[in-house]
Structures are given as C-alpha cells and as structure tokens.
Specification:
Elements: H1 5-10, H2 24-44, E1 49-54, H3 58-74, E2 77-78, E3 86-91, H4 96-115, E4 120-125, H5 131-140, E5 146-148, H6 156-164, E6 170-172, E7 193-197, E8 199-200, H7 211-215, E9 219-220, H8 223-235, E10 240-244, H9 261-269, E11 276-280, H10 289-297, E12 304-306, H11 314-319, H12 326-339, E13 344-351, H13 358-371, E14 375-380, H14 398-421, E15 427-435, E16 440-445, E17 450-454, E18 463-471, E19 476-480, H15 485-497
Parallel strand pairs: 1-2, 1-3, 3-4, 4-5, 5-6, 7-10, 10-11, 12-13, 13-14, 17-19
Antiparallel strand pairs: 8-9, 15-16, 15-18, 16-17, 18-19
Helix pairs in contact: 2-6, 9-10, 13-14
The structure holds S-adenosyl-L-homocysteine (SAH), iron/sulfur cluster (SF4) and FE3-S4 cluster.
Length: about 500
C-alpha cells in the first residue's frame, strides 16, 4: 500500500501527457481531478462533498474503501448523506431485490439532482456488468453521469476527470480482465480491522449464480503483495484481517509459482502484531485436510468457518453444479468438528431452486440438524438471467417455497440457540468493535458472534475478556471481567493512545 501519496504527486507534471503505466497513470489523474475539484469548490465557496452507498458482500465493501480513498485524495469531503455533490452507488446483483433497491435509490436521488444540477451520480459494481442493466439506465435513468464496472474501479480518478469534462453520460465497462492494479490510496472504515483481497473473480459457475459473470475469471494476488499489505496494515494498528475471495480454497492455482491457501495462511500467521485471521468464503469441494490442520494448530485463525451448503439434497446440489453430495458435505463437516471441536460453523442456504420439492428441503433441514450451525443465511432463490438455472422449469409454487423457507428458518433458529448456549458462563477474548451510544459496547468473539456489554468507548479496537452471561440466539450479553488487572492496563493504554 502506498503511504506517501503527496510525494508521488509532486513528481507529476500535468503539462506532460498522462503516463501509460499503472498505477502512475492514476496518480496523474488524481492530481488532475484535484484541480477540477478545487476550481469547482472555489466557485461554490465551500468544499465538495461525496457519499458512497455500498450494496452486497465484503468484496464490494472493500472496493468502496478503494473508491473512497481516491475521492478523499482528490479533495472531496466524505459524508454519509445522499445530498452530497457526488454520490456513487456500488451495486450488487446476486439477487433481484439488490437490483430493485438501487433503482429505488436512483428515483430518490434524481429528485435531489433536479434541485442541485451540479450534483453528480456514479454507478459501479456488479450490477453494471450486466448489459441489460446498462440499457435500462441509458433509457430510463439518463441523469446518471458515470457508469463503470467491477474490473476498472482503480481507474476512478481518470473516469472522474472524464465525467467533469463532459456533459454526457460516461460509460466504461470491461467484460473481463487479467489485470490486478495495486498501490493506490484506500480509506479504511475501521482502524483495527480490515478486509484484504487475496483473489478476485470466480470459476465455479454454480448454476444459479451471477457472480462469475460479473466478477470475471479467478485471479489470485501474489502472496508477497498480500503479506506486504497486511504488514503495512498491522503497522497502522490493524489487529484483525479478513482474507477475501469468492472461493479462498482455490487460492494460488493461477499463480506462476502455485501456492495453496493453507500455505498462504501459514505465511500470514507469521506476521508479528497480527492477532486474528478470518477468511471468506470456503467452497466445500476444495476444502483440504491441510487447511483443517493449519486451522487446528493456529493461534491466530479464528474458530469460525463459513461453509456454504446451499442445499441438502444431492439431486439439487447436482443441478446447482456444486460438485459435492450431501454425504460428502456431512463427512467434511464431521471431520472439521472432530479436528477442531470448538469451531463455529455457519452457512448459506438457498430455498426454491428450480425443481426443489418439500422432500428436498427436508434433506436440507436434516443437514442443519446434524451439522448444528451457529448461524445460517437463508435466501429465497432469485432467477438471474444468463445463468443456466434461469432456463430450468420451476413447478413449485411461491406459497410452497415460502412454507419450505419458514420450516427451514425455524430449525436454523432452534439449532443456533442450542449452539449458543454451549458457551454460556464462559469467559472469552473479545475484540471491541463499537460503542452503541451510552456505555454499551459490542465486540466479536473468535467464533464471530457479537457480544454486548457495559464498558468504556476507549476500549474500541482492544481485546478484553468478557463473561458470556446470556445467550440470545445469534448474539450474547456479557460482562467484562473486572478482576483482571489487564483491563485497567488496557484502559490506560487506550486512553493514552487517543
Ligand atoms: N462465493 C460465495 C458466495 C457468494 S454469493 C460462495 O460460494 O459461498 C452469497 C450467497 O448468495 C451464496 O452463498 C448463495 O447462498 C446466495 N445466492 C447466490 N446466488 C443466488 C440466487 N440466484 N438466488 C438466491 N441466493 C443466491
Ligand atoms: Fe457463486 Fe458458486 Fe462462485 Fe460462490 S462459488 S460466487 S456461489 S459461482
Ligand atoms: Fe453481490 Fe457482487 Fe458480492 S453480485 S454478493 S456484490 S460479488
């Protein structure tokens, strides 16, 4: 991660042509955009404001941090309000309701733009990779100023310069890319934890899923770049990282010198000062014994594994192109629980995939009971145009799907509640994440469950020991262990660092 942006910008002369090589080309445009923003600010007699609205998964959240980093370096003041001079929507298209929410926001922001004509609206992210969406926006949302996709977010400064120099809608969408552009400024939402991309794209083509079409082919980042980024984050105070990829278990396959995900984790573990490692998401078909062993012996990898099941019926799994059977999944879950007994398992499940019957959902429920998930994210199947499942006939009625969904949800709640009772009365190490007003803090256990407890806001970003006194399904109520001298010490240190 580049730290001294100013030093780089000083070497750039805007009278020269823009350099062809990245990332220098983008620094050139950051400098150029600064001038445009400054001129606009002087005209208005105030600083220009910007707002980023993010939909979807952690990948998008990470991308938004990169976009915000560029905006801040250009001179925008970031605010959390769509009345800003520039609003970007980083969109998701995994299910149709994500798309509908964006169209809703666009209607709302259009009214604001009518009152404030110099307001600019930018759209980016997964939804923009779909040609039908672009057509719709060109036809019905002509007030949008800039559209770009998932492969060229690093070009944001260059695109902004184009946008401010033109009166018509700027559209720049790439179908795919083999490029990974690094070393641009990024802004972090949290001081103490951070997502770190380890790979981009997905090659799995689960038959219901749009992600491989909108995020492109799988590309792994070079391990040296990943380690360097984490070392820099740690030097800035980060204690927890979340390694991000659509299928982290296939990390490294496309590298010149192939490396497994388990090997990468061992390298990350060595980073001094880093306390916690999380990762997301693991595809069950690629989860290796090596990974289980590395997790088992690690002192830093959190006791949590998100292992998407999607469905419990082998017939449906096959139609989904998941490439494992119900029995293989169960065997894997049992092996993980045997090797790492204190692990928490969470999952994703889709209900209503084409052709799924009540009997198929019974099998999913059976798996939920057997695996005893700590949490499960359940979704109603959403048809995504262009995916193989979109053309499969679906004779199951909406009512039946809703009934199946509710049946599953009841069991998910039941097992989660049973699981959460297991830790009751125990004291666990918690990373304090936020203060909910007053003196109520929220922190995360290693198993990823939140715990709420009384404490001083100066503990945010610190580890404390908390006794779990009440289990409320997906979260706990806790009490800080006051006897511990360490706490006072921490309080002191935290206050000094402020
Ligand atoms: N790469 C991750 C998932 C990314 S999408 C993985 O393989 O687990 C997150 C979740 O959205 C998926 O796990 C799936 O449960 C759900 N999902 C994906 N496509 C969907 C669709 N068309 N309808 C409903 N849910 C879907
Ligand atoms: Fe989608 Fe499957 Fe890839 Fe996950 S692994 S992103 S569900 S295609
Ligand atoms: Fe959505 Fe794109 Fe993530 S479609 S779930 S934001 S990869």
């Amino acid at each position: 991660m580049i730290r001294n942006v100013e030093a780089i910008l000083e070497t750039i002369d805007l009278r020269d042509d823009a350099p062809a090589d990245e990332p220098m080309r983008q620094y050139y445009f950051i400098k150029k955009a600064r001038e445009l923003v400054k001129a606009e600010s002087e005209k208005l007699g105030r600083r220009l404001t910007a707002d980023g609205e993010t939909f979807g998964c952690q990948m998008n959240a990470k991308d938004s941090e990169k976009l915000i980093g560029i905006l801040e370096n250009i001179g925008f003041e970031m605010i959390e309000d769509e009345s800003a001079d520039l609003v970007f929507y980083n969109t998701c298209t995994v299910r149709d309701n994500a798309n509908q929410r964006v169209y809703g926001r666009l209607g709302f922001v259009h009214n604001m733009k009518k009152k404030n004509p110099h307001k600019k609206i930018a759209l980016c992210g997964c939804m923009m990779q779909e040609p039908s969406v672009i057509e719709k926006i060109q036809k019905s949302y002509r007030f949008v100023d800039l559209i770009f996709g998932t492969h060229n977010i690093y070009k944001f400064a260059e695109l902004l310069v184009a946008m401010y120099s033109s009166d018509s809608m700027i559209i720049d969408i790439w179908k795919d890319t083999d490029k990974i552009v690094e070393d641009l400024p990024a802004e972090r939402k949290y001081a103490f934890k951070s997502g770190v991309n380890i790979m981009y794209g997905c090659n799995n083509f689960c038959s219901y899923c749009i992600v491989p079409y909108v995020r492109g082919r799988e590309r792994s980042r070079n391990p040296k770049d990943i380690i360097r980024e984490i070392e820099n984050l740690v030097s800035e105070g980060v204690v927890e990282v979340m390694l991000l990829g659509q299928n982290v278990n296939s990390y490294g396959k496309t590298l010149e010198e192939p490396m497994t995900f388990a090997q990468l984790l061992q390298e990350v573990e060595k980073i001094e000062g880093l306390e916690r490692i999380r990762f997301m998401t693991s595809h069950p078909k690629d989860l290796s014994d090596d990974l289980i062993q590395v997790m088992k012996h690690s002192k830093k990898i959190c006791r949590h594994l998100h292992l998407p099941l999607q469905a419990g019926s082998t017939r449906i799994l096959e139609a989904m192109n998941r490439r494992y059977t119900k029995e293989q999944y169960l065997a894997l879950a049992h092996k993980i629980r045997r090797e790492i007994p204190d692990i928490s398992l969470t999952t994703d499940i889709i209900v209503g995939f084409p052709g799924e019957t009540a009997a198929d959902v019974d099998e999913t429920i059976e798996v939920v009971r057997e695996v005893q998930y700590d949490n499960a994210f359940t979704f109603i199947y959403s048809k995504r145009t262009g995916t193989p499942a979109a053309t499969m006939p679906n004779p199951t009625s909406e009512e039946e799907i809703k009934e199946n969904f509710d049946r599953l949800l009841a069991v998910v709640h039941e097992t989660a509640e049973q699981r959460s009772k297991l830790l009751l009365g125990e004291t666990h190490r918690v990373l304090v994440e936020k203060c909910n007003g007053g003196s109520q803090l929220t922190g995360k256990l290693s198993c990823d469950k939140p715990v709420h407890f009384e404490g001083d806001a100066c503990l945010i970003g610190k580890f404390v020991d908390v006794k779990l006194v009440e289990a409320r399904g997906f979260y706990y109520m806790g009490k800080i262990n006051m006897q511990e001298h360490r706490l006072r010490e921490l309080l002191c240190k935290a206050k000094q660092n402020r």
